[in-house]
Protein: aldehyde dehydrogenase (NAD(+))
Amino acid sequence: MRALSYDELFIGGRWQAPATAQRISVISPHTEQPIGETPAAAAADVDRAVRAAREAFDDGPWPRMSVDERMAKVEKLAALYAAHTDAMADLITAEMGSPRSFSRLGQATGAVAQMHLNLVAARDYPWVERRRGLFGDVQVRRAPVGVVGAIVPWNVPQFLIMPKMIPALIAGCSVVVKPAPETPIDAMWLAEMLAETEFPEGVVSILPGGRETGEALVRHPGVDKISFTGSSATGRHIAAVCGEQLKRVSLELGGKSAAIILDDADIDRTVKHLKTASLMNNGQACVAQTRILVSERRHDDVIDALAGMMADLQVGDPADEATDIGPLVAQRQQQRVQGYIQSGIDEGARMVLGGTESPRDRGWYVRPTLFTGATNTMRIAREEIFGPVLTVLTYSDERDAVRIANDTEYGLAGSVWTSDAAHGLDIAAEIRTGTYGINMYTLDTTMPFGGFKQSGIGREFGAEGLSEYVELQTTVSADPLPPVPA
Ligand code: NAD
Structure:
C-alpha cells in the first residue's frame, strides 16, 4: 500500500509546507482505526494556490500552448495513472469503504477512462471556427475560462475530480482542486502523479480540506469559475456566493431518482439490474434509483424479487472481492441513514427487511433496508438517504407513475423498465431529469450528464463537459481571415 501520510500540500505544482499545523486524520470505515493523514489546507494555502494559478493563467505558457501540447501532458498523466489503477482502487476502498469491485471499475479505471474520453472529445471539439457573419469573416474561438476551483465530495473521489480537472486543463485553464476531508489521501497520490507529469508552475494545485477551505476557494476573487459536485444545500450556497461576484459556476448535485417498473417488465431482469443501479457504492451514489415505482398488479412480485435480492447481499469488509455492501463513509452517515430508516417506520411505511441496528459490531455498516407501503410525502421518499435503503411506491396507472416520478425537487436520473423500448422513450420524454435509462441505468461518460431542477446546473462529460471550461470569443474582421491552421 502507498505511504498514507503526507506532510506537504501540492500548491502550484510543487510540494510546499502548509500554512498551519492543522491535519486531517482518515479513519477506516471498516476498522474504525486511523489509516493515514494529510495537512488540511487553510485559507492562506488557498490564497497561495490561487495566486499561483492566476499567474500561470495570466502570464504563463499553459493557456498559450496549443491544445495538442496540453493534450500530450494529459496523455502522459493518463499513462502514469493507468499503471496504478488497482492500487488506487484499494486506497479508495480503505479510505471510504466502497466495495473493491466498485472501486476498481467505477472509480479508478473510470478515472483513467475519463482522461482518455476527454482527449477523444477534445480532438473533435471546435476550438476555433471561421464563420460567415453579417459583415464578413468572423472567428469564433473557445477561450479557456481562466482559474478554476474544483470542489468534490468523497463518494467517488477520483471519478469526480477527472471530469473537472481534465477538461479544464485541456481547455487551458489552471485548476485548484479541493477534495473532501474524508478522502484526501487518494487526492495526494494524484498530486504525486501530477508532479511527475510536470505541468508548468502554478497550473495545478490539490488542497484537501473541509468547508472552510472550500469557502475560501469559492470566495477568492482570483477564481474565475467554480465547478462543484456535492449536496444541493451546499450547491445552493455556492451558487449564491458566485452570483454576488458573477463568477461562472457549474453544479452537480443530489438526486432521488425513480425507477418506474411497468406491468410488461421482466421482473427478474429488472431486479438484477437494480442491484447495481440502486445500491452501487453502498447506496452512496447521486444517481441511485432509490424510489421504485410499481403498480398494484405487480407489487407483490416486485417486492418478493427485491427482498430476495437484498437478503442475499453480502455485507462486510469492502476489501473482500465478494462484498456487495461495505460500510458507509463515516459514523455520522451511518447514524443519519439509520435515522432515515427510523423515520420510515415512524411515518408508517412497512419495512420488508433491514432495520436500524448495525449488522456488525465494528465499522459504520447499515442493514440493506426495503420499505413498501410508502407515500411520496414521506421523508424516505423525498430526501436523499445516501445508503442502502430502497422505497417502493405504488402507482395506479402510467400517468400516475410519471406524476410521482416528477414529484421531487431533484432531476438527476431515472429509469423505466418495460418490454417496449419505444414506449420507454415516451416515458423518458415526460420525466424531468438530465439522464434516463430504459431497462438499465448506467452513466455513459461520453454523453452529457447533469441535473434538471435542484440537481444542478451545467453538464459534465464529452463535448458539453469541455464547454463548461471555455468562454466564447467572437472576432469580426473588415478584411478576409486566413483559414484556421490545421
Ligand atoms: P457536501 O455538499 O457536504 O460536500 C461536498 C464538497 O463541498 C466537500 O468537498 C466539502 O468539503 C465541500 N464544501 C462543504 N461546504 C462548503 C462550502 N460552504 N463552500 C465550499 N465547499 C464546501 O456533499 P457530501 O454530503 O459530502 O456529498 C454527497 C452529495 O454529493 C450528495 O448529495 C450527492 O448526491 C452529491 N453528488 C452529486 C453528484 C453529481 O454528479 N450530481 C455526484 C456525486 C455526489
User: Anything to note?
Assistant: The mean pLDDT is 97. The chain has two domains: 9-253+451-476, 257-438. The chain has 15 helices and 20 strands. The radius of gyration is 23 Å.
